């Protein structure tokens, strides 16, 4: 009996050990599945897995039930789609557990920053990287003043002035900003005759006048007196206002004739806004410097159309820039899951969103089978998978001779600076620069010909110094 009892204990012990091993393996497999699904469906919007969820401030609750609810049913107003059509309950649960595993990591892990100061050798240009400024929130807009000072807009609504003497101060009397979701203080642009008139232009997500739960993209101009904005004047406010918190656009660019171009995203309503001319969303607009409408805008005489519209059929353009030699305006924009684009704009043209696209829904389902259609423009270039392009500039001047007239744009998703070589109006070559540097939010040329790059989380401004 004792032998049988001892044998039973041994068998039970082995069984418990096997059960524990099997359970650990099952949990590991469960988390591995969650990681694979997260990498496939989530990274495009949530950056890399660490900085998105480690030490996260949860908007809708951080327990498993709330996370499953967010994944399954989405948070439409914040741009989070529902995944119930593309994933089953078991897959969603594995994603939730993986996210919780990430969230359990310490904040210290999230704030580790590379201090690589080595020389960078691109295919045709050698350069070093200097950190000009760090410790920012999420820098979005960059604009240099004639005295060498740098204006910086942070997405939380702050406007900062970084002087040529190295002093950082907050500018008062900046616009009232609804900083939620993808909204906040967005881009900055100086008037071409800034030294004569002092006008600074700001794009931001503006709360509704009657219902502060509603918002849309607005453009304000103002003058800087010391550390304060004066003569504030709202010259454009996109309609309709909506409770959605994503796809605001917005980038600003003056052309050689003094017209101001800017983008407004579809504001999360792709089926209603981009293809209709009776609203401002999903469009590139052109206005005079005081907000009035140019007489030759393509839809000025079209009944029911918004007269500021210059072209339409866009999702969320977050790069607008002018070619330094041709003077033509180029844009880049976010597609869905795949189908980010570079476009050369033409007045009155329809760029197709969402009727045609090279992308699919974030949950893996399709919304269109067409990539081309009569009467709709094709992109100059597109990316699959999405790189999440943000910011855009042409390399001007002679400091980077082998990059001259190349396009630089940031990749939010893959965390690098993207170089695009043009042959006329066609893309002939691409190169990834500064891989792993962080989410590149903007790229700008200084008046003295240097490239500056804005990185978010942790927010910093980098300067590329050619060798």
List keywords for this structure.
467 residues, alpha+beta, Neuraminidase, 2 domains, 4-stranded antiparallel β-sheet, 7 helices, 25 strands, globular
State the major sheet.
Answer: 5 strands, antiparallel
CATH fold description of the largest domain: Neuraminidase
What is the correct CATH architecture of the largest domain?
A: 6 Propeller
Q: Kindly report the name of the CATH homologous superfamily of the largest domain.
A: TolB, C-terminal domain
In what order do the strands lie side by side in the largest sheet? Answer: 1-2-25-24-23
Overall number of strands: 25
List the helices and strands and how they pair.
Layout (H helix, E strand, L loop, with lengths): L1 H40 L1 H4 L2 H5 L10 H10 L15 H15 L3 H4 L9 E2 L4 E11 L2 E6 L5 E5 L4 E4 L5 E3 L14 E6 L3 H4 L2 E8 L7 E11 L2 E10 L14 E3 L5 E5 L18 E5 L21 E4 L3 E7 L6 E6 L5 E5 L36 E3 L5 E6 L12 E5 L4 E8 L2 E8 L5 E7 L5 E6 L2 E8 L1
Antiparallel strand pairs: 1-2, 2-25, 3-4, 4-5, 5-6, 7-8, 8-9, 9-10, 11-12, 12-13, 13-14, 15-16, 16-17, 17-18, 19-20, 20-21, 21-22, 23-24, 24-25
Helix pairs in contact: 1-5, 4-5
Characterise the protein shown here.
By secondary structure, this protein is of the alpha+beta class. 18% of the residues lie in helices and 33% in strands. It has a 5-stranded antiparallel beta sheet, with no helix packed on it. A 4-stranded antiparallel beta sheet has the order 3-4-5-6, with no helix packed on it. The chain has a 4-stranded antiparallel beta sheet with strand order 7-8-9-10, with no helix packed on it. Strand 24 and strand 25 (459-466) form a beta hairpin. Pfam families: Cytochrome_CBB3, GSDH. GO terms for molecular function: electron transfer activity; heme binding; metal ion binding. Keywords: Heme, Iron, Membrane, Metal-binding, Transmembrane, Transmembrane helix. This is PQQ-dependent sugar dehydrogenase.
């Amino acid at each position: 009996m004792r032998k049988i009892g001892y044998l039973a204990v041994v068998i039970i012990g082995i069984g418990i050990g096997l059960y524990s091993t099997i359970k650990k393996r099952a949990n590991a497999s469960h988390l591995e599945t969650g990681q694979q699904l997260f990498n496939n469906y989530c990274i495009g919007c949530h950056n890399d897995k660490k900085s998105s969820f480690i030490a996260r401030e949860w908007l809708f609750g951080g327990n498993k039930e709330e996370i499953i609810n967010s994944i399954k049913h989405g948070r439409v107003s914040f741009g989070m789609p529902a995944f119930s059509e593309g994933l089953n309950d078991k897959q969603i649960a594995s994603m939730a557990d993986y996210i919780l595993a990430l969230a359990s990591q310490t904040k210290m892990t999230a704030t580790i920053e590379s201090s690589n100061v080595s020389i960078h050798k691109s295919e045709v240009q050698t350069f070093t990287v200097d950190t000009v400024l760090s410790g920012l929130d999420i820098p979005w807009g960059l604009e240099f003043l004639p005295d060498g000072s740098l204006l910086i807009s942070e997405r939380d609504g702050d406007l900062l002035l970084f002087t040529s003497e190295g002093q950082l101060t907050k500018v008062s009397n900046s616009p009232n900003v609804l900083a939620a979701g993808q909204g906040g203080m967005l881009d900055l642009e100086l008037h071409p005759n800034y030294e004569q008139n002092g006008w600074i232009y700001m794009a931001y997500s503006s709360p509704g006048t009657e219902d502060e739960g509603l918002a849309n993209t607005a453009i304000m101009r103002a003058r800087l007196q010391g550390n304060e904005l004066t003569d504030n004047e709202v010259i454009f406010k996109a309609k309709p206002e909506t409770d959605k918190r994503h796809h605001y656009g917005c980038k600003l660019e003056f052309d050689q004739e003094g017209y101001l171009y800017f983008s407004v995203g579809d504001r999360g309503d792709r089926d209603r806004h981009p293809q209709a001319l009776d609203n401002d969303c999903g469009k590139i607009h052109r206005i005079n410097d005081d907000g009035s409408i140019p007489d030759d805008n393509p839809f000025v005489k079209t009944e029911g159309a918004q007269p500021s519209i210059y072209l339409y059929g866009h999702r969320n353009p977050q790069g607008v820039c002018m070619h330094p030699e041709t003077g033509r305006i180029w844009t880049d924009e976010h597609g869905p899951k795949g189908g980010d684009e570079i476009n050369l704009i033409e007045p009155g043209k329809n760029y197709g969103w969402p009727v045609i696209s090279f992308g699919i829904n974030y949950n893996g389902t399709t919304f269109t089978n067409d990539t081309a259609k009569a009467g709709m423009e094709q992109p100059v270039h597109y990316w699959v998978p999405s790189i999440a392009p943000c910011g855009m500039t042409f390399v001007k001047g002679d400091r980077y001779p082998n990059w001259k007239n190349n396009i630089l744009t940031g990749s939010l998703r893959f965390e690098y600076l993207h170089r695009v070589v043009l042959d006329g109006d066609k893309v002939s070559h691409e190169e990834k620069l500064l891989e792993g540097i962080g989410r590149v939010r903007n790229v700008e040329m200084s008046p003295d010909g240097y490239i500056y790059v804005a990185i978010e989380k942790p927010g910093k401004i980098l300067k590329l110094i050619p060798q």
